[in-house]
Amino acid sequence: xxxxxxxxxxxxxxxxxxxxxxxxxxxxxxxxxxxxxxxxxxxxxxxxxxxxxxxxxxxxxxxxxxxxxxxxxxxxxxxxxxxxxxxxxxxxxxxxxxxxxxxxxxxxxxxxxxxxxxxxxxxxxxxxxxxxxxxxxxxxxxxxxxxxxxxxxxxxxxxxxxxxxxxxxxxxxxxxxxxxxxxxxxxxxxxxxxxxxxxxxxxxxxxxxxxxxxxxxxxxxxxxxxxxxxxxxxxxxxxxxxxxxxxxxxxxxxxxxxxxxxxxxxxxxxxxxxxxxxxxxxxxxxxxxxxxxxxxxxxxxxxxxxxxxxxxxxxxxxxxxxxxxxxxxxxxxxxxxxxxxx
Length: 342
Ligand SMILES: Cc1ncc(COP(=O)(O)O)c(C=O)c1O
What we know:
Layout: E1 24-25, H1 37-47, H2 60-69, E2 76-79, H3 81-93, E3 97-102, H4 107-114, E4 118-123, H5 132-138, E5 143-149, H6 161-170, E6 177-180, H7 195-201, E7 205-210, E8 223-226, H8 229-236, H9 246-257, H10 259-282, E9 294-297, H11 302-308, E10 311-312, E11 314-315, E12 321-324, H12 328-338
Parallel strand pairs: 1-10, 3-4, 3-5, 5-6, 6-7
Antiparallel strand pairs: 2-8, 7-8, 9-12, 11-12
The chain binds pyridoxal-5'-phosphate.
């Protein structure tokens, strides 16, 4: 099925003060599709009640998400994007060390700093995978939180399901593990983890998700985590009063109701990602297989070449770059910018 990008490039025409105008903004692993008309209509309707406060502490949104997932509403904590929820997690855990891979989602070093925690970065293995053995060895009595990303940002690689199970079994139960599944909807169903079983087995596990990526609602800031017992209660206690806008419930209900259309968009993005990956590998760039809506393009020189072509990417110190995928015109521009690099 062909899925049309209603406004393929216009929203990304963002101009900056640099000499080269930004023709494509691929720096934040955003979904290139604007919200579905049904989601926009639901949000607009909710805005007619904007003179009213939302729930003092969110009740309806956790219930809607919990129903969709088949878990208890008591096991769901919502927040301002996955970032807001992760901030609640770090605040709930206080001081100590956060163990995570590097590079990773930029938010983790920032949140560690804000929460007064020390980030312990564990380098990725050579093919871009998170190094679970090294992470296990780095756990000590100061470890207050471990973060795993599946798929990983920025490489898009996916930890083996059995390896995640063994890792969780080897971690002391007093150490919470945040499994960041921000991009889970881009995974093939057979590659997804059975979070129900994992959560039952591991009371120290918290699963983090977002409506920013596959659901394409990054600007509405809706995220949640799922966990159990005392740990999820501590995270819930960090909830900001009146912190979840009324529009969030409307958007999530409408997004869940539009599952098929959103699935088509995800399929389109995944197909486009494969086309771009193959075309770049054909140019000699060793792009790892990704299961998210972005590709990691190993350097050197990649980030600079993209910038010169007016393509905004997430740049890394060694010259590598991460680009969002999904817009065919942007994919062609990336190929044109890098075709002669190697
Ligand atoms: C791995 C990962 N986790 C969490 C987030 C935060 O997403 P948001 O705060 O938009 O829900 C991102 C955003 O890029 C991400 O890449």
